[in-house]
């Protein structure tokens, strides 16, 4: 490279002061110089904004004033990145830390092929940096599933650089070309599944998605579904229906959506048997809202209202047409 491309790093914050400060500190240790760090604050009520401004005065801080969610919040940062003519945008969860050479390695990978629309690093869990959280993503269209490859495995170098179906949104480097071609994140998702949706649109636009194991980062998020609370389960359940209703091949879409509902139903039963009634109700509400095409942010914790109501779904194929 004769010139280092301009990279905008977008870190979304919502009442996550300590995590965000650790993430920004790892960015400060980066060996890549042509970076503009953008913190988008989603209406935090802690002292995140004042502390970030004090400790990291070189960071661009955008205050949304309210919680827009992952998709819309990051879109604010992406829009700003386009305005400042950044060549790459790196979406980075605030509960992550990156290796010093992570950004430079991702940029080198992106620059090797103009057909690459996005690239992601290997993501480790929050321990000693040996347990994999994601080595790229794979989509199972028939069974309505999208999985992080290698999750829970010890990294022994078993996953090489290669094309993947999607890149985990905790660390996703997008090219300007890809954003201009397919647009921003779909805000109907609010949070969860939106990066899978965006990556699918990129692939269908003729661009590649790459996994690069030489780039490394760690993420605090759990890799066990049993550790998820009711709110994540609600959005994951609902948005799974939105994703596969939108993108599953028409010839198998009814089967795919039936698998999605069946999988959620099994989760509901399992949570009820374990005494996690709010978790079960969240998944039930997610199914109903998905089939009713009720997207975006859901403020009312509807899953707390009735711990024993049976699941009532009139037509599991109601969402088979593109919403």
Structure notes:
The chain is α/β, with parallel strands linked by helices and 323 residues long. The chain has two domains: 7-219, Spore Coat Polysaccharide Biosynthesis Protein SpsA, Chain A (Alpha-Beta Complex); 226-304, no CATH class. Helices cover 36% and strands 20% of the residues. It contains nine helices and twelve strands. The chain has helices spanning 17-28, 48-55, 69-83, 102-111, 176-182, 194-204, 230-247, 253-273, 277-291; strands at residues 7-13, 35-41, 60-63, 88-93, 96-98, 116-124, 132-134, 137-140, 145-148, 162-163, 171-175, 208-219. The termini are far apart.
In short:
The protein has 323 residues and is an alpha/beta fold.
Draw up the topology in text.
Blueprint: E1 7-13, H1 17-28, E2 35-41, H2 48-55, E3 60-63, H3 69-83, E4 88-93, E5 96-98, H4 102-111, E6 116-124, E7 132-134, E8 137-140, E9 145-148, E10 162-163, E11 171-175, H5 176-182, H6 194-204, E12 208-219, H7 230-247, H8 253-273, H9 277-291
Parallel strand pairs: 1-2, 1-4, 2-3, 6-12
Antiparallel strand pairs: 4-11, 5-12, 6-7, 6-11, 8-9, 10-12
Low-confidence stretches: 306-323
Instruction: Tally the beta strands.
Output: 12
Tally of helical runs: 9
| Percentage of residues assigned to helices | 25-40%
Biggest β-sheet strands, sense, barrel = 10 strands, mixed
């Amino acid at each position: 490279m004769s010139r280092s491309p301009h990279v905008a790093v977008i870190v979304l914050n919502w009442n996550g002061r300590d995590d965000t400060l650790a993430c920004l500190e790892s960015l400060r240790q980066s060996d890549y110089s042509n970076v503009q760090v953008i913190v988008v604050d989603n209406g935090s009520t802690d002292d995140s904004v004042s502390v970030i401004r004090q400790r990291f005065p070189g960071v661009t801080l955008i205050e949304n004033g309210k919680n827009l969610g992952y998709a819309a919040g990051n879109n604010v940062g992406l829009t700003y990145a386009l305005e400042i003519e950044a060549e790459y945008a790196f979406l980075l969860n605030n509960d992550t830390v990156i290796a010093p050479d992570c950004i430079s390695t991702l940029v080198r990978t992106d620059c090797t092929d103009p057909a690459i629309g996005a690239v992601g690093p290997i993501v480790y869990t929050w321990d000693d940096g040996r347990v994999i959280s994601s080595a790229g993503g794979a989509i199972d269209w028939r069974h309505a599933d999208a999985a992080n490859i290698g999750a829970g495995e010890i990294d022994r170098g078993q996953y090489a650089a290669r094309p993947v179906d999607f890149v985990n949104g905790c660390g996703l480097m997008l090219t300007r070309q890809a954003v201009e071609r397919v647009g921003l994140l779909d805000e109907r998702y609010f949070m969860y599944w939106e990066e899978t949706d965006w990556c699918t649109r990129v692939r269908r636009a003729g661009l590649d998605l790459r996994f690069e194991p030489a780039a490394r980062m760690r993420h605090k998020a759990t890799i066990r579904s049993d550790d998820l609370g009711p709110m994540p389960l609600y959005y994951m359940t609902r948005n799974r229906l939105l994703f596969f209703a939108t993108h599953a091949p028409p010839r198998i879409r009814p089967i795919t959506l039936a698998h999605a509902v069946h999988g959620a139903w099994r989760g509901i039963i399992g949570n009820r048997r374990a005494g996690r009634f709010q978790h079960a109700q969240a998944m039930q509400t997610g199914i109903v809202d998905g089939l009713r095409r009720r997207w975006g942010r859901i403020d009312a914790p509807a899953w707390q209202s009735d711990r024993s109501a049976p699941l009532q779904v009139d037509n599991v194929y109601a969402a088979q047409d593109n919403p």
